[in-house]
Amino acid sequence: MDTTDFRRARSPQAKQQREAAILDAARALGAERGIRQVTLTDIAAAVGMHKSALLRYFETREEIYLRLTAAGWQEWVPVLCAEIGRGADGDPADVAAAFARTLAARGMFCDLLAQAPMNLERNVSVEAVLEFKLVTLAGVTAVVAAVRERLPELTEADGVDLIAAATSMAGTFWNIATPGPEVAALYRDDPRLAHAIVDVEPRLARILTAMLEGIVARRRGEAPRH
Length: 226
Known about the structure:
Layout: H1 3-8, H2 12-33, H3 40-46, H4 51-54, H5 61-85, H6 92-104, H7 107-118, H8 126-150, H9 156-177, H10 181-189, H11 200-220
Helix pairs in contact: 2-3, 2-5, 5-6, 5-7, 5-8, 6-9, 6-11, 7-9, 8-9, 9-11
C-alpha cells in the first residue's frame, strides 16, 4: 500500500478507510500467527505505514485487537442465536452443540476471547474498555434471551454463566489445541501425551451439555442424567 496515500488523506471517510485497513491487516496477521505473536510494527508494515503514523489511529496493538474482539462478538452472536433457534425445545444438548459448533468454527475469535481479559483490556483507555464491554453486554443479552427461549427453566443468571463458561473454555481449549509445531509433534508422537491433544468442538459440547443438564434437572427437581 502506498504510504503517500496515508499521509495525504484528510477526510473522515479516509480516516475510516485507514482504520479498516489496519484492522484488516491485524486480523489477517492474527489468524496466521496467533494474536500473541503480532506486534504493532508488524501491523504497520502490513499496511505500508510507519509505526508512528499508525499510532494516530490506535494507541496500542491491544486497542486494535480489542476492537476486533468486539467485532467478533457482533458477528458471532446472531449466528449463535439462529443456531439455538433451530434446536429442539427443552434439549440442553442442542443448545450446548450450538455454542460448541459456532465457537469452534471461529478460531481467531476463540484466541481473542482468551487474550481479551489477560492482555487486551489492560493496555487501553478506560473509554476503549467501556466501548468493548457495551458490545459484549448487548451480545450477552441477546444470547441469554435465545437460550431461555429454548430452555425456559434457566434464569437470566444461568444464561450469563453459560456464556461465560462457553467463551472462556473456548478460548482456553483453542490455545491448547494450537501449540507450536514442535510441541504438536511431541503430542502426536508420545502416547503418554495423547490427553494433551484437544478437539475443541466435542469437548466443549460435552462440558456445556453436562452443565446445562445439571441446571435444568435442578430447576425441574429431577436427578441429573449420567
